[in-house]
Amino acid sequence: MALQEVQELTIQNIHHLLQTGELSVRELVQAYLARIEQFDQQGPAINAVIQVNPLALKAADELDAARRRGDACGLLHGIPVLVKDNIETAGLETTGGSLSLAGYIPQQDAFLISRLKQAGAVILAKTNLHEFAIWGETVSSMLGQTLNPYDLTRSPGGSSGGTGSAVAANFGAVGIGTDTVNSVRSPSSANCLMGVKPTLGLVSRTGIIPYSLNQDTAGPMTRCVADAAAVLSVIAGYDSADSATADCRTKEPVNYSAYLNNEGLRGKRLGVVRNFFGKDPIHSEVNAVMATALQQLADQGATLIELTLPWTADFLISDVSLHQYDFREHLEAYLEGLGDQVSVHSIADILASGKYHPGISDTLNRAGQLSQRGDEYARRVRLRQEIISTTQELLDNQRLDALVFPHQKRLVVPVGQPQLDRNGVLGAVTGFPAFTVPAGFSQPTATAPLGVPVGIEFVGRPWAEPDLFAITYAFEQATSVRKPPLVK
């Protein structure tokens, strides 16, 4: 398969080609590996892939043999997956992007990786992230700075920016990221992708390097909504090792693909959160894209209700989110559990090693001063619960199916600048599901010949993933925003 032929293949496309014999899993994997070889460290040098799986072709051959035998095929049979490198994958390094964990090779898969493999997926590569998933620019001591394939002068968002850039550039069929505040949806917005932050507790975190177990989750990052629905159907579900998934124990498994409906916006009531939009000139290009997107939602039968939340995204980050207070204790508990497989077992050990990117030094030092055992943490926990209740009441009282706003008020920032004006924290602190889908592009420039992608975010009630898939699929089908970057 030629490099250009693999571009924008969906799961449905791949399965059709496999079923007709026009393609083998080996040929597919080889084509993606060739794209990584040509574009990741050469050409545009996107710098998204930390490690290619040396056993990917062996796994592909086994899947091809299973098909020839007539074995039952899983939902993701033969689908090459790009995995953020804070998710344990047996036989492959899992570093969190940090040289301090270089050489750690898990013996077991994270729960969600085992689910992917059981469904027939091929783990193709591990992708870069902002080290320990700390910030939103995707720079690490393992690999350095990942670039945005739509504009090589800009970051890809983060912290799952390696997955975002790699999926956008067609280095694999689908990707997996993790999300504590913005980290699946930020690079999805910046790379013209569908990104899913599921309800907290829908997807297991076992085997994922933690940031804040009160907010951490994992989710699909894909080039179309249908692919995200298929991936989430596979990775969702109860894990006895992760108590957050306890509610899944009594829930029937959901095939989210059943909710993809061209008429999914008809009759939906969407709350447009106006204080999550910017008002300054730097916000104008995002606002222009969003104005068009909102009109498209209305044209597809949605009723838009203008509203203002009683708090801003900045307030939720600075005064409510628990992630910085959880970081030290949750990360150190994870590192202690690795025993002599790693040489660092605390933030102090990481600092002493010097094996980390200097850009995270302030966060590491601050983590040693923050604690879950104090009045400030208790205040945040109380306020977080109030915000959960208030958001639920707003959805109920206004009879809303979702809240809607731009994921980022301004375009994703140039390399070297801090990521600003992101709105993903609402889904993070409430634990409610939040989906980001391509909304449009800014005006083309010399460095961004297609423009810079802009994502629109939808936040729904807990366990309302079916509704959000209906909404985002209908929007996607009506708008056809997705365009591959001009990677060459």
Task: Please provide a written account of the structure.
With 488 residues, the protein is of the alpha/beta class. The protein has one domain (3-479): Alpha-Beta Complex (Amidase signature (AS) enzymes), CATH 3.90.1300.10. Helix content is 34%, strand content 13%. The chain contains 15 helices and 13 strands. The strands form two sheets. Strands 1-3-2-6-8-7-12-13-11-9-10 form an eleven-stranded mixed β-sheet, sandwiched between helices. Helix 2 (25-39) packs antiparallel against helix 3, helix 10 crosses helix 12 (361-367) and helix 11 runs antiparallel to helix 12 (361-367). The longest helix is centred in the last third of the chain and has 23 residues, at 375-397. The radius of gyration is 21 Å and the shape is globular. It starts with 10 loop residues before the first helix and ends in a 9-residue tail after the last helix. The mean pLDDT is 97. Residues 27-468 form the Amidase domain. Pfam families: Amidase. It comes from Anaerosporomusa subterranea. This is Amidase.
TL;DR of this structure?
The protein is α/β, with parallel strands linked by helices and 488 residues long.
Dominant shape:
globular
* CATH homologous superfamily label: Amidase signature (AS) domain
By DSSP, the count of extended strands is 13
CATH architecture descriptor name: Alpha-Beta Complex
Give the amount of beta strand, in percent. 5-15%
Mean pLDDT: 97
Biggest sheet record: 11 strands, mixed
Question: Helical element count?
Answer: 15
CATH domain class name: Alpha Beta
Radius of gyration: 21 Å
The topology string of helices and strands comes to HHEHEHEEEHEHEEHEHEHHHHHEHEEH
Count of spatially separate domains: 1
Pfam families: Amidase
Protein name: Amidase
Organism: Anaerosporomusa subterranea
InterPro entries: Amidase_dom, AS_sf
